[in-house]
Write a structure and sequence with these properties.
- The strands form three sheets. The protein has a five-stranded mixed beta sheet. The protein has a four-stranded antiparallel beta sheet with strand order 2-1-4-3.
- The mean pLDDT is 81.
- The longest helix has 65 residues.
- The radius of gyration is 40 Å and the shape is elongated.
- The chain has three domains: 134 residues; 77 residues; 149 residues, 2-Layer Sandwich (Heat Shock Protein 90).
- The protein has ten helices and eleven strands.
- It is an alpha+beta fold.
- The relative contact order is 0.06.
């Protein structure tokens, strides 16, 4: 399937290149043809003008007059050998009447566009006039048509790619939501059954320790189910204390880490820092970040969580002294499927980004990372 899509894309790209190349070559062919015809028209116009000047009173000047009046598109400037302007036609009358420098600029432009047509006075061979002419509007349109076409095609391609990207993201969001809802639904039944069995065990003496451990596992499963259920639907945000939420998650992870891992939580002197969050989902994000920090260290090191409250936002920095992230991987850490672990799914950070940015309208990113020294993730929440 991937190869077929790739082949189709390659074929379409090649066809598009051939079409655009053909259009460019054909338009340049037309431009050269029009330029040749315009040069002939200029030469005919010059001969007609000189014929009208030098003809006798009885001469038939109808053809010459018709040739001179028919040229309404090709701009022409007549000058002597010293580039003193004698006359001109088909220039902007409002500018040429009030600004002689405008005509001088046009003369310079015409010199760069076409070679001058030289007319020698038949009665005085030492007297020569030079006729400089520019490109007509039609010729300019033909020359610039491929550029306009390329711009239109590029805009069309950009709009198409953006539409496909938006469609892909929409489908991706639906898949995420569908998987989350289905997972929550599938977990709901066995968890409810386990809760029932735990209640039945309470009636039997000597099972207190077993019940205590079972309740922890059941509560954990219920929490996971609740998290997936909230991802599958829009969660309700509540104004909660981030200090207590983070401390509880740090305590949870501290119990599961080795004694050589040092955890610290800093609040910059604040006893309480509030923000609008969904507690189960926010805890999930902190848990994912703390787990990644633990995995990046070989059983020893330190993990610090630093909270800072501003006027409109709260920032949370989670720093570890682990292996760090290479510079080429920093931009990929939040992409689904990316992982450096041998048995990882690469979904933790992707889910964390979705939870913070989509549901909490905040930000999460790698603030800094250095290979061999550690990484700092930053979460930004609106107050």
């Amino acid at each position: 399937m991937f190869r077929q899509i790739l082949n189709w894309r390659t074929a379409l790209a090649v066809i598009a290149i051939f079409i655009i190349s053909g259009t460019i070559f054909y338009s340049q062919y037309l431009a050269r043809k029009i330029a040749k015809e315009e040069k002939q028209k200029v030469e005919q116009w010059i001969e007609a003008v000189k014929f009208l000047i030098s003809s006798s009173e009885n001469a038939d000047v109808k053809l010459a007059a018709m040739i001179t009046t028919q040229n309404t598109s090709i701009p022409i400037i007549e000058a002597n050998e010293k580039d003193s302007i004698l006359q001109f036609i088909n220039l902007d009358s409002t500018k040429s009447a009030n600004d002689i420098s405008y005509v001088q600029r046009k003369l310079k432009q015409f010199k760069s566009q076409n070679n001058a047509v030289v007319w020698v006075d038949p009665f005085d061979s030492t007297k020569r006039n030079l006729y400089y002419y520019g490109d007509s509007k039609l010729l300019n349109e033909v020359r610039y048509y491929p550029i306009v076409q390329l711009i239109v095609v590029a805009l069309f391609i950009i709009i198409t790619l953006l539409s496909l990207r938006s469609s892909y993201r929409s489908v991706q969001n639906q898949v995420w939501a569908g998987m989350a809802k289905e997972t929550a639904h599938q977990l709901g039944t066995p968890v409810s059954s386990l809760e029932g069995w735990v209640e039945m065990l309470r009636d039997k003496p000597g099972t207190e320790k077993i019940i205590q451990e079972l309740e922890k596992d059941v509560n954990r499963l219920r929490l996971v189910s609740d998290r997936f259920g909230k991802i599958g639907s829009t969660p309700q945000l509540e104004q909660l204390d981030l200090v207590s939420q983070i401390n509880s998650m740090v305590d949870y992870m501290r119990k599961r880490a080795t004694g050589k891992i040092i955890f610290t939580v800093g609040t910059n002197g604040k006893q309480k820092i509030e923000a609008a969050i969904s507690a189960p989902l926010f805890d999930w994000v902190i848990e994912n970040l703390l787990k990644n920090a633990l995995d990046s260290m070989e059983g020893k090191g330190s993990i610090s969580v630093d909270m800072n409250e501003g006027d409109n936002k709260v920032t949370i920095d989670i720093t570890d002294t682990g292996k760090g992230i290479s510079s080429q991987n920093i931009s990929r850490v939040f992409k689904p499927g990316f992982t450096t672990k041998k048995r990882g799914w690469g979904l933790g950070l992707s889910l964390s980004k979705r939870i913070i940015e989509q549901y909490h309208k905040g930000e999460i990113y790698v603030k800094s990372s250095e290979t061999g020294k550690g990484t700092t993730f930053r979460i930004v929440l609106k107050k």
